[in-house]
Give the backbone structure.
Amino acid sequence: MSPASPDDDPTHALDDFVRRMRPAAQPAAAADADLSDLQDGLLARLHPERATGTAGAARPKGGTLRSGQTWDADDVVDVPEVQLPRVPPDRTDIPAVTLPIVDLVAEQAQAASSPVIDLPQVITPPLPDAGALDDATRRASHGVAAQQDSEDHDNAEAVWQPGLQSLQLRRASHPRLLATWQPGAWTGAVREVLASTTEFVTTPGGTAVETYPPHRLLLLWPPQRLDAPTPGRWPQQVKLSAVPADQAAEVLVGLLPGPELLWIHTAAGQIDWALAAEIVLHHDSTLRPFQANGLRAFIASEREATFARLNADYDLPGGSGAVLRR
């Protein structure tokens, strides 16, 4: 097959094959014979329906290719016919689509219309008249003013707080205590002379601080004249005690010699408390240092108060004569 022939037929690919492969010196008749035999054999194998000659025709003998390879007719194997699937061509027609009928005019009209909102019914109360409005304003102003006055009054007054004694249960009065003086009753007096104090004490565990409650002087006088409850300057009994104030009267009742009654003197200015303190300080050898020092300080304070009183309450008019009380 010549490469210069653009219209070569593949069925004639072996035409003139033997002649071209043999040398030129071979006779043309032999080449034609071999070529015809080869052509008839190949034609019979490739196209049995177009084969010529009888059924007992001689089979091709074979040959030699241009490359020098020798082939034989028995080496030829028929290639099975392959049926390739046919690819359908692309569709050029447009499938039919059924769409619902749309009324564009109605749709546009519905879109342009305003939405309907169902609002609850609002009941507007009637407007008050001017007289009712002024009356309501006046009553509100008076109420606010009264409330403010009440708050100002409450803030001006001190807030009541119960005292410590009122929070405690009241002790029952002793049956031998008198609320008022009567003839034949003993007279007692109570006064605090030492405030609560602390003292360093030595204990087995070392030095410690001990706190003492307030101390009071308890005085007793026998029954006075039938017409006057004023006690004398010198008391019958004097005692220094740390008893609480609400229990001092019962301690004095316990000091009475018998079932006599007792009245507590309330005019402390008529009693010489410095003298009573000196009596205890001079005779009681069991006083602790803080008690003795407290009594000395109390006596000094009473003398200063007495001096201040005689200096302020008495005067000598004209520089001579009797000293008069102002």
